[in-house]
Amino acid sequence: MKGIILAGGSGTRLRPLTGTVSKQLLPVYDKPMIYYPLSVLMRAGIRDILIISSRNHLEMFRSLLGDGSHLGIELSYAQQDEPRGIAEAFLIGEKHIGDSPVALILGDNVFHGAGFSTTIAQAAARLDGCELFGYPVNDPERYGVGEIDAEGRLLSLVEKPVKPRSNLAVTGLYLYDNDVVEIAAGLTPSARGELEITDVNQAYLAQGRARLTELGRGFAWLDMGTHDSLLQAGQYVQLLEQRQGERIACVEEIALRMGFIDHEQCHALGRDLGDSGYGNYVRELARRAAATAAAESSSAA
């Protein structure tokens, strides 16, 4: 499965913070926002990832993340001239997708919860059309809302309904089979001139090939589109990291645990991060991994 992170848009709701920098490069407590969606795809085992952003910001992402080889993944970049809807990502990324299924994640979403990697892997394994992820909210009229049956099959999908049939907001993570490119190419732009992701999902729903997994109790989904939500996301990450002693969306840690890099490569990454709390954390991860490997080698001998 290929991955796409949509990190475009002008971030107007976050001005003046986004006057010269991409929203997805703003700090969310101790790391850039882009680390959070990138970590989701990496935890799902996706290693070939396209980052889509505006012309003014692409070089900033390249400077931060490079080609991804230091994390054992492959990153490429593509330009979105102006925001024309989420579904345009499939047209921009057509060559990247090729004949593969694809996971699309929005660059300003945080997902956090126990067993999330397993949840995504299970959804990818049964993929036959599209797999959406829903999160219960108190104000579903502000979101695209999905209604599902007992088996998770999507029964209805309405954008910002006046009378919602459920409280399940469709989040910014989507899994699709390869038909999504053709479906996106056949869409009629909305009145705003955009290719709407809801129209893509409606096409799969009409075919009876749409499912939605509910992300329930013990899970957090945060959309960092406003000053308040950006601050709340940072506070959430700060609280958990300080209480638990583990870092959320540490891409170096995920690369190590997924086997994309070894403990020596991880230690080198930590060294490059300098004498910061984040760098110290990455070096300690590498030290523990090295100790575990040495103990296993000694036991085998």
From TrEMBL:
<dbReference type="InterPro" id="IPR005835">
    <property type="entry name" value="NTP_transferase_dom"/>
</dbReference>
<dbReference type="GO" id="GO:0046872">
    <property type="term" value="F:metal ion binding"/>
</dbReference>
<comment type="function">
    <text>Catalyzes the formation of dTDP-glucose, from dTTP and glucose 1-phosphate, as well as its pyrophosphorolysis.</text>
</comment>
<feature type="domain" description="Nucleotidyl transferase">
    <location>
        <begin position="2"/>
        <end position="236"/>
    </location>
</feature>
<keyword id="KW-0808">Transferase</keyword>
<dbReference type="GO" id="GO:0008879">
    <property type="term" value="F:glucose-1-phosphate thymidylyltransferase activity"/>
</dbReference>
<dbReference type="InterPro" id="IPR005907">
    <property type="entry name" value="G1P_thy_trans_s"/>
</dbReference>
<dbReference type="InterPro" id="IPR029044">
    <property type="entry name" value="Nucleotide-diphossugar_trans"/>
</dbReference>
<dbReference type="GO" id="GO:0019318">
    <property type="term" value="P:hexose metabolic process"/>
</dbReference>
<dbReference type="Pfam" id="PF00483">
    <property type="entry name" value="NTP_transferase"/>
</dbReference>
<keyword id="KW-0614">Plasmid</keyword>
<protein>
    <recommendedName>
        <fullName>Glucose-1-phosphate thymidylyltransferase</fullName>
        <ecNumber>2.7.7.24</ecNumber>
    </recommendedName>
</protein>
<keyword id="KW-0479">Metal-binding</keyword>
<keyword id="KW-0548">Nucleotidyltransferase</keyword>
<dbReference type="GO" id="GO:0000271">
    <property type="term" value="P:polysaccharide biosynthetic process"/>
</dbReference>
<comment type="similarity">
    <text>Belongs to the glucose-1-phosphate thymidylyltransferase family.</text>
</comment>
<keyword id="KW-0460">Magnesium</keyword>
